[in-house]
Amino acid sequence: MGSLALSRVDIADPAPTIADEVARLARQELAPLASAIDAGSVYPGEFLRRLGEVGAWASHVPQEGPADLRCAIQSMAALGEICGATAFMAWCQNTLVWYAANSTNMKLATRFGDAFSSGRVLGGTGLSNPMKSFFGIERLKLKGRKVEGGYVVRGALPWVSNLGPDHYFGTIFEREDEDGKPESGGTVMFLADCSDPAITLTPCKPFLAMDGTGTYGVQFRDVFVPDELILAETAAPFVKKIRAGFILLQAGMGLGLMKDCINIMDEVHAPLGHVNRYLPQQPLQFRELYAEFEKEAMTLARDPYNEDDSYWRRVVALRLRIGDASVAVAHAAMLHCGARGYLKSHRAQRRLREAYFVAIVTPATKQLRKMLADA
Length: 375
Ligand SMILES: Cc1cc2nc3c(=O)[nH]c(=O)nc-3n(C[C@H](O)[C@H](O)[C@H](O)COP(=O)(O)OP(=O)(O)OC[C@H]3O[C@@H](n4cnc5c(N)ncnc54)[C@H](O)[C@@H]3O)c2cc1C
Prior knowledge:
This protein is of the alpha+beta class. 52% of the residues lie in helices and 16% in strands. The protein has helices spanning 18-30, 34-39, 45-53, 70-82, 84-102, 106-117, 128-134, 235-248, 251-267, 269-276, 283-301, 309-337, 339-342, 347-360, 365-374, and strands at 123-125, 142-147, 150-160, 168-176, 182-193, 199-203, 216-226, 230-232. Strands 1, 2, 3, 4, 5, 6, 7 and 8 form an eight-stranded mixed beta sheet that branches. Helix 5 (84-102) runs antiparallel to helix 8 (235-248). The longest helix is centred in the C-terminal third of the chain and has 29 residues, at 309-337. The protein starts with 17 loop residues before the first helix and ends with a helix. The chain binds flavin-adenine dinucleotide. Flavin-adenine dinucleotide binds at residues 92, 124-129, 132, 138, 158-161, 207, 210, 215, 360-362, 364, 367.
């Protein structure tokens, strides 16, 4: 990691921060790939490993207790300003790191902690279904039964991103007994090893965006999961511990996208400002909103283990507002651009497609609204 400082917030330190370095790499190395990633012809595995080399996946690892997510969010915002799909893959990787860093399974932490946080091993998270299940929206899709030295897991997840043949991801199964009946209240969180021959990755049908994100349907055909891959024997308290971080880290995706949509509106101000000023939504409004979200995200990101209900509500409310604002600002950018933004070659239409993903990725807008209604 060299002398890279952790956070841009340390303005007294003139050394380049990790987020600055990520921003530089995003402009120089990611920008030329963004269209191909969007089209699904490139999965930027090498670039993700390169980001690991500059410390992009390590800054939020807890240091003897507290954790600070600010630098990770700022780095993902820098990526999101250039490419929403890559910001999402960065979130997948950061979330995987977050799981391993919070696990009390020492064997797992020793084997994977550094491998994930350095980017030597890539991967993601299959927590959409469990997150929906914990909030009463759908049933758990994976089932596991205890055997000597681990569990045997079966079932399928429809979408898991940032995957490949040697990748890992964290997910959850419901324990069942010998007869296939659910064991009362038992859910286990574990790492799935995509190189296991009993795990099949099936490419998904083309999406509206995010096609270069290494997203697959994942089938588990009686996969043996050894104790070494168990993140938490009881998933519920573990999820409670990591859930604020899981959601807060998504802020980077939305903030980066918002910033670029504001840039797009600014770029067309000179030729079209005389008529664009009649549009109801202007860059200034979004700049103010961005500043508000960034401030709130940076405040909440200093304290991801806070157990107060009021803190949790702030995290959920911020995430909801960022999803809504991402769609709104991308829509406004399209209207400001006019025919220029309607060209396939212009990034405004890509940003609009990416913005909908911010609003539908778990926890989706509807789930966030349910969570606030139930809290
Ligand atoms: C590009 C992309 C990448 C994603 N990456 C991940 C990831 O890395 N990890 C992860 O856990 N989740 C991932 N998801 C899932 C995502 O987080 C959301 O869960 C999903 O977008 C739906 O959320 P929702 O709350 O709107 O649920 P809804 O769409 O309201 O309902 C979802 C449920 O409907 C059913 N369903 C609907 N359409 C289909 C379909 N075409 N095929 C199969 N089942 C269907 C399934 O039972 C599914 O669980 C990804 C989704 C997309 C589109």
